[in-house]
Amino acid sequence: MTGWPAEISDFILETFGNDARKAYGQISTVNEKGQPSVRTVHIHCIEHPTQGLLISCNTKSEKWSHLKKNPQIAGCFWNPENQTQVRFEGIADLISEKTSDFSELIQSMWMKMREEVRITYLLDEEGTPLNTKSPKVDPTKHSHNHGLILVTPTLWDVFQNNPKAYRLGKRSIYSLKNNKWDKKQVSSLHEKSI
Ligand SMILES: Cc1cc2nc3c(=O)[nH]c(=O)nc-3n(C[C@H](O)[C@H](O)[C@H](O)COP(=O)(O)O)c2cc1C
């Protein structure tokens, strides 16, 4: 297991492991014609049983069907609080209720979703119109259409913007080569070493 680059392990946890400050970023998938498709998601991270990024989604969604055919995924998150852009690339594993090894993880991630989102999943699953007034569903009951995208990153690109002087911003790319993380410091303008 390669895990995350040790040097940015704490940073990854601070960025994606804080439920009080949700990390809404964008992930992109590719359809069967090679067309990229991007959308906003809540990006979480986990340490056990593996280190990875985790995204809750509906198994009827486009992203899910893209990833089923092509597990390559990329994402980006801009945190204005610390002026940091985090980009990642990786391979996605799709975890659904059928993947019994992860049933606890699925349930805990389900309960991390906002109640109104859980209700939306459940109404959609039972075919009830979403604009139904006062819908009667139990939001603790897991929807069969809830799944998890587990991203095992193969590249991290961390760009620490310097708000006073753009040219002094720091950008590091960590890429997985022969099961080891290779780090290079690059320009913010392109990927050539500085
Ligand atoms: C702030 C925000 C957060 C969102 N978080 C998620 C999320 O965690 N998971 C998800 O599947 N969709 C999330 N969405 C909805 C997606 O952006 C998207 O509209 C939906 O998942 C359908 O995407 P797809 O058909 O391309 O798969 C979020 C949207 C917004 C605006």
Question: How would you explain this protein's 3D organization?
Answer:
This protein is α+β, with helices and mostly antiparallel strands and 194 residues long. The chain has a single domain, classed as Pnp Oxidase, Chain A, CATH 2.30.110. Helices cover 20% and strands 38% of the residues. The chain contains four helices and nine strands; from the N terminus they run αββββαββααβββ. The chain has helices at 9-16, 62-69, 103-112, 115-126; strands at 24-30, 36-42, 44-46, 52-58, 72-79, 84-95, 146-160, 170-177, 180-186. Strands 1, 2, 3, 4, 5, 6, 7, 8 and 9 form a nine-stranded antiparallel beta sheet that branches. A hairpin with a 5-residue loop joins β1 (24-30) and β2 (36-42). The protein is elongated and about 60 Å long. The mean pLDDT is 95. The structure holds flavin mononucleotide. The site of flavin mononucleotide (FMN) has 13 residues, from β2, β4 and α2. Flavin mononucleotide (FMN) is lined by residues 24, 37, 39-42, 55-58, 61-63.
How many individual helices?
4
Name the helix and strand elements from N-terminus to C-terminus, one letter apiece: HEEEEHEEHHEEE
Would you identify the CATH H-level superfamily? Electron Transport, Fmn-binding Protein, Chain A
Low-pLDDT segments, ≥5 res: none
Please give the number of β-strands: 9
What's the CATH architecture? Roll
Main beta sheet strand tally, sense and closure: 9 strands, antiparallel
The CATH C-level name is Mainly Beta
What is the distance, rounded to the nearest whole angstrom, between the alpha carbons of the first and last residues? 30 Å
Number of domains: 1
CATH topology: Pnp Oxidase, Chain A
What binds here, in terms of ligands, is: flavin mononucleotide
Helix content class = 10-25%
Strand content: 35-45%
Overall geometry comes to: elongated
Mean pLDDT: 95
> Any idea what the radius of gyration is?
18 Å
